[in-house]
Amino acid sequence: MERPSWEEYFMEIARVVATRSTCLRRNVGAVIVRNRQILATGYNGVPRDLAHCDVRGCLREELGIPSGERHELCRGLHAEQNAIIQAAYQGTEIRDAELYCTHQPCVVCAKMIVNAGIETVYFAGAYPDRLATEVFAESGIRLVPVSEQ
After folding, report:
1. 80 an active-site residue?
2. By CB atoms within 10 Å of each CB, which of 61, 86, 97, 99 scores lowest?
3. What is the end-to-end Cα distance of the chain in Å, rounded?
């Protein structure tokens, strides 16, 4: 067995984190890393103590909202948001960190990533949000695609 690169290693961990997701549309995982050490993880799902979408149902699905649109009509948080919140909740500084995510972040997450001081975003799956790509480019954050396994 060939030893994985650091990028492959952390992306595989993000994929495992995504298995905790209760989203009915897309399972996403995120891992925040600095100096090859994991600082926080997150997956997409509803806030703590709320009924999960796999129990309650998906409002976006019921309303026929396409992927990448109307994020405010979702009861859940994105994986990147949950990872950033987890770090804040635990008092873990994430400035100058890297983010590994199973999917390219949306514009809402991109803005949070910029303000959190994350330097590089590695992602595997595409996401239909051109504005997010523009935000990353303008902010100087490296957006690095990683091949899906």
Report:
1. yes
2. 61
3. 15
